[in-house]
Structure formats: C-alpha cells, structure tokens
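Researcher: Please translate sequence to structure tokens.
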Amino acid sequence: MTIQATKNIEQALNYHTAAQNFMKQKQYKNAVVSYLNSLMIDKENIKTYISLSKAYKILKEYDKAVKYLNMAKKISEETFEIHYELGINHLLNAEPYKAVFCFQKAIMLNPKNLNAQIQLAISHELLEEPEISLMIYEKILEERPDFILCHNHKAGLYMQLGEFEEAAKVFKQILKIKPDYFRANLGLGICFDKLEKRHFAVRYYKKYIVEKPDSDTTKALVGRIVEIYSKKSNTRKRLKVVS
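Model: Translation complete:
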C-alpha cells in the first residue's frame, strides 16, 4: 500500500469518526456531511453507507437512506443489517410491500434475529394480511414463549381485528411472565371495556394508573372510570324507580 493510499484511509476514518461523534451529539446534518466526505475517499466502506443511512433515517429522508443502502448492497448482498435497515426505511416510507422482501432476505441471512421477524409480521399487518402476521407471531412464540414484545404485537393485532376475547388471553399471558407490565394492564382494561365487562375493566385501569400516575393516558382513564361509575349509579336509580 502506498503512502498516499494509507493517508486516504486515515482521512476517511477521521471523517467517519467525526460523523459518529456528530451522531452522539444529535447533530445529524453535520454527521451526513462527514459520512459523505468519508465515502468520497473510501467508496467501499459498507459501515459508512449503513451509518449514513441511519442519519438520513433520523432526518426522515427515507429515500436517501434507501439510496445509500442500495449502494452498500452492490458491495455486499450478504450483509444482514443492509437488508434490515432497507426494510425499516421502506416501512417508514409507507412501502410495506417492499419491506416484506427486505425482511425476508434479512431473516434468510440471520434466522435467529427476532426483530426482523417482528418487522416482517408488522409489514404483513400493514398489507392487511393478518393471518400471515399471526402465523409469524405464533412461530416466534413457539421458540421464545417469554418474548413480551411479540405477545404485545399479537394482542394488538387481535384488538385491531375486534377479537377482544383473544386479545385478553394474550395480555393475561403477558402478566404471567411479567406481572407489573403496565401495557398489559391497560390492554386488558380496554378489552374488558369493549366486552362490556366494566367491573374487570376498572380493575385493570386502576392497576395501570398505579404504575403510570402521571401519564396522559391515566388522565383519560380516570375520566373513563368516572363515566363507568356514573352509568352504574344511573342504572341503580332507574331500578329503584321501576321497583
């Protein structure tokens, strides 16, 4: 390697390091400039392409993120992170049909990566293919029955489908794994509310409120609990009148 080539590599590395520091400082536009300067010197550095795409992703410039990931893919078709990040950017750019192929490729390269499997299921949800999504969630949970994120997505999908009984079963399973998981308490409350089992709904709403007393959701739940109690009170009054 010539002295000039060595200097070029060092300069490209310096630009890349500067970009990484800008990323840590949340100066993403400056990071983009430094990554691009690095690539002008070293056009074969896959890590720089991926890092540049992440900066563009944060800046919500998804088309540019995809552009540089595709450039990286020309250098190496067998890099998991390239396909995974392509999938994420296609999802963020409202292109789930493209995301599916990217996540499928990512999973082929790394079958044990559960995040890629979850994202593939989400892509199918967005394509209004809930049966495929549920099949993926079930497959993941066969291997990792304690994977709360997967349970949560599965329950959320059941709720979207209006299958609140099934969603409630999943939320109960989550609470067996992690009894203080506040999202499961909220989910159960909503499911029981939809199923008109108000007593149980209030019970789980209160559990959520204890865990998250200062959240905006808590304020809404307090209002909902008051509304439920108010309806019960009015029902009792009507019963007295009738009797």
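Researcher: Any highlights?
Model: Residues 28 and 55 are 6 Å apart (CA to CA).
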